[in-house]
């Protein structure tokens, strides 16, 4: 099978790329960083096709997809993995530009690439779309600002794709990871403050990027008539956000 993975240069995307190639498949790896993609190609060989494109730039996605050479142009599985969080501040304390970037990549780019690929799957009556959402789309938490809502969109979009694809041999799964280490997620969220990023995972046994990638691969090994709609994954050391209660300051007696 040929798999298109967005955000293939790191984290879940890179780990999933390796697993699919280890299992004899071909992968089109889409990412912004050309140099990183070339290093991955050097490592993984001719079954990996590097597609340099920016998920925030719809033209670059279109050009890349429309110019895929054979046999990489038939996409059997689309893994919409690219996505990011910026900032851990409350909504009133985040630049609108950060919101815009999250909306552009997590919603606009993801929808656009799906819109480009879906018709070829429908024409073949065969395909699989795996969207990488987040527990942040299920449970609001302080500082998630617009990140969680963009992931709530991804979850809702997966469900609606399932509704629209009834009767077709096209599967859709929504993967909802919680706290995961070995990715650049927090380094990007904190804009290069690596010490702060590291502190998120200190003293916690988080789920690893490889473990999420193995779950993604497992989904694709299920019989074709079996659709795993949603799969939510957290480390045992994480649980749901509590219902926050604000306590008034005690007035001085
Ligand atoms: C990321 C999950 O818990 O780090 O999608 O916000 S969390």
Automatic annotation (TrEMBL):
> GO molecular function terms here?
oxidoreductase activity, acting on the CH-OH group of donors, NAD or NADP as acceptor
Which domain of life does the UniProt lineage start with?
Bacteria
> What's a Pfam family in this record?
adh_short
Q: Which UniProt keywords apply?
A: Oxidoreductase
Q: Which Gene3D superfamilies match?
A: NAD(P)-binding Rossmann-like Domain
What the entry lists under InterPro entries is as follows:
NAD(P)-bd_dom_sf (IPR036291), SDR_fam (IPR002347)
Q: Which family does it belong to?
A: Belongs to the short-chain dehydrogenases/reductases (SDR) family.
Q: What is this protein called?
A: NADP-dependent 3-hydroxy acid dehydrogenase
> Whose protein is this, by species?
Ignatzschineria cameli
Q: What is the lineage of its organism?
A: Bacteria, Pseudomonadati, Pseudomonadota, Gammaproteobacteria, Cardiobacteriales
